[in-house]
């Protein structure tokens, strides 16, 4: 989209054809990281120095202010993959496939971060780095599903086939997200029950809840920034790959006749040289009846 920067008139830059200012685009706003960095610093400072520690777990509970928001962004990112995949299967527009791929990459990173922070939190509380708990197991399966999704994008040779296959995986793989969330309810688990995203009021202190909500906002802004950057990179990758996908030799277009139908193949030009029969002596003319009478 072309940007019209009205320098002489002093008016703010606008998107040509829309009349809206350039800052109207949400992705341009999210692509500026200072807000996310400031919110991250506030979350770390409040979580480490302001909010009191948990009465049972002590200071190790402070990992909750980054562990839970990372899990929230994981669910949100894979939800975007689900919606974008459905939109691609319905419309066939490549921009939905690009959005699903970008969100899947971010979701995989935050899912791995969630598992890592959970292991750091579980070691002093559970006495082990890892256990085959229902919540941990279903989260690991979720990570493997979307790692396979990203691997599938490298296997398919045709862009259309790749987008269709990945859209199907993006829709089916999202089934594990509600399973992960409800695993602590459906099965016996070492993992604690939901304290915020649950039916009824939250079961944690007000100061902890406020810090946790600040962490949600912080990680959501980080997701928006990463998403905006990845979408721009995806558009550049598509533009760079477009000339490569075209055939190296272009066929010459046949001229069209007045009726709009393609004309036949052009006639071959004869090789330069004397015409056929040049340089030969002419054959003698046959004798007529008149010449025989004069003889």
Written account of the structure:
By secondary structure, the protein is mainly α. It has two domains: 1-30, no CATH class; 32-196 and 205-240, Four Helix Bundle (Hemerythrin (Met), subunit A) (Up-down Bundle). Helix content is 60%, strand content 1%. It has helices at residues 26-30, 34-50, 64-91, 94-126, 134-155, 159-173, 176-186, 206-245, 289-294; strands spanning 3-4, 14-15. Strands 1-2 form a two-stranded antiparallel ribbon. The longest helix has 40 residues, at 206-245. The radius of gyration is 35 Å and the shape is elongated. The model is unreliable at 1-31, 247-253 and 287-295 (pLDDT under 50).
Short summary:
With 295 residues, the chain is mainly α. Helix content is 60%, strand content 1%.
Along the chain, the helix and strand elements come as EEHHHHHHHHH
The largest β sheet comes out as: 2 strands, antiparallel
Number of helices: 9
Broad shape: elongated
Q: Which percent range describes the beta-strand content?
A: under 5%
Into which percent range does the helicity of residues fall? 55-70%
Radius of gyration: 35 Å
Task: Report, as a whole number of angstroms, the end-to-end distance.
Answer: 98 Å
How many strand elements?
2
């Amino acid at each position: 989209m072309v940007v019209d920067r009205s320098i002489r008139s002093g008016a703010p830059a606008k998107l040509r054809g829309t009349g809206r200012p350039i800052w109207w685009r949400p992705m341009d706003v999210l692509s500026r990281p200072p807000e996310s960095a400031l919110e991250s610093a506030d979350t770390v400072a409040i979580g480490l120095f302001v909010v009191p520690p948990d009465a049972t777990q002590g200071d190790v509970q402070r990992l909750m202010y980054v562990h839970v928001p990372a899990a929230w962004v994981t669910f949100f990112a894979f939800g975007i993959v689900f919606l974008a995949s459905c939109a691609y299967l319905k419309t066939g527009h490549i921009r939905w496939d690009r959005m699903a791929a970008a969100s899947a990459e971010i979701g995989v990173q935050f899912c791995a971060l969630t598992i890592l922070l959970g292991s750091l939190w579980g070691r002093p509380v559970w006495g082990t780095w890892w256990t085959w708990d229902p919540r941990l197991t279903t989260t690991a399966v979720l990570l493997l599903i979307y790692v396979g999704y990203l691997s599938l994008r490298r296997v398919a040779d045709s862009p259309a086939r790749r987008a269709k296959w990945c859209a199907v995986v993006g829709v089916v793989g999202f089934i594990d997200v509600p399973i992960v969330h409800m695993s602590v309810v459906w099965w016996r688990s070492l993992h604690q029950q939901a304290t915020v995203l649950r039916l009824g009021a939250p079961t944690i202190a007000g100061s902890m809840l406020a810090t946790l909500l600040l962490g949600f906002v912080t990680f959501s802004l980080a997701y928006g920034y990463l998403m905006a950057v990845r979408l721009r990179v995806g558009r550049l990758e598509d533009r760079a790959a477009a000339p490569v996908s075209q055939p190296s030799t272009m066929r010459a277009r046949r001229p069209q006749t007045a009726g709009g139908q393609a004309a036949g193949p052009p006639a071959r030009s004869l090789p330069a040289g004397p015409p056929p029969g040049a340089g030969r002596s002419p054959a003698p003319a046959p004798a007529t009846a008149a010449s025989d009478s004069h003889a």
